[in-house]
Design goal:
With 289 residues, the chain is mainly beta. The chain is 12% helix and 30% strand. It has 5 helices and 16 strands. Helix 3 (53-61) crosses helix 4.
């Protein structure tokens, strides 16, 4: 588990939707933020047809990240109808209905689907939906900061500062609670694409070139991940718990000089099932490779 991070604070889990009436009642809060930048052509809700990767980044820029005109952080204030915390900011960039959903909902199938960190594209999200209201956080991926993909540029609305554009490593370090997500409006969400199956893993897991422990390729982060198929291989055992099945998947972090795509992770790390079982989250056997 990752350590607590100061000054990140994001939306409280229960604050998923605010009614028109409650938003109207919050007019004083909106008025008190008069120093915030005025409405722009990119503000307000977008239709699904309007949302592209380019438009998500363009909308993220309208809150003037990293400048004196940036939008201040406040879980209880609004800018152009959107809550001025991290999930409200991400909701605005994605063109979701004001005032925006919370961090947990951003990571839910109704809004997005998990992807490998290595698969991130502009406008995708990196989210910690596991912690409490002081540590949950969401950022908008822009681009990799270096050829080794060890850090990336992202837009975020962060506590103690407001709207920012900076280099981050969330989700790239061992034990991180951050995971990559693809919004439905950008092609994610709902059921996995054909040939992929959702599974939950209880810990970070090393991925290997073959279904054995001879050639490590990188790491699959703890959480919800997709896998392609299963293959019988070398036993992985810890005490009385064991599994011979291996799951073919794409890793979140790749070791230097290795290939994280199509690597094998032991089904031992599946959170829901027992010895020598390899099922997806719906309880169906994952097909053989």
């Amino acid at each position: 588990m990752s350590s607590k991070r100061p000054f990140i604070r994001c939306a409280i889990t229960g604050v998923a939707v605010v009614s028109v009436a409650s938003f109207t009642a919050a007019g004083a809060l909106t008025a008190s933020a008069a120093t915030i930048a005025s409405r722009s052509p990119h503000s307000g809700r977008a239709t699904a047809a309007d949302v592209t990767r380019e438009s998500v980044i363009a909308r993220a820029k309208t809150w003037n990240p990293g400048t004196p005109q940036r939008v201040p952080y406040n879980q209880h204030a609004y800018h152009n109808g959107y809550r001025t915390d991290c999930s409200g900011y991400a909701s605005m960039a994605l063109g979701l209905k004001p005032p925006g959903v919370n961090t947990v909902t951003l990571a839910s199938p109704s809004v997005s689907s998990p992807i490998a960190m290595s698969a991130l594209l502009p406008g995708d999200l990196v989210i910690d939906a596991i912690g409490d209201s002081n540590t949950r956080h969401a950022v908008i991926f822009e681009q990799w900061a270096n050829p080794g993909h060890t850090s990336y540029w992202a837009y975020e609305q962060r506590g103690g500062y407001g709207t920012d554009h900076r280099v981050l490593t969330y989700g790239l370090k061992a034990g991180s609670q951050f995971h990559a997500y693809r919004p439905r409006v950008l092609g994610g969400g709902g059921n996995p694409s054909p040939g992929k199956f959702w599974v939950d893993t209880f810990s970070n897991a090393t991925g290997y070139r073959e279904p054995n422990t001879n050639d490590p390729q990188g790491t699959l982060n703890k959480g919800t991940n997709y896998v392609y198929c299963r293959m019988w291989g070398a036993e992985v055992r810890h005490g009385g718990d064991f599994n011979h099945w291996w799951l073919r998947t794409d890793l979140d972090r790749t070791n230097p000089g290795k290939n994280g795509n199509g690597a094998y992770v032991s089904a031992y790390y599946l959170a829901k099932w027992g010895n020598d079982e390899a099922k997806d989250n719906s309880g169906q056997d994952i097909p053989n490779c």
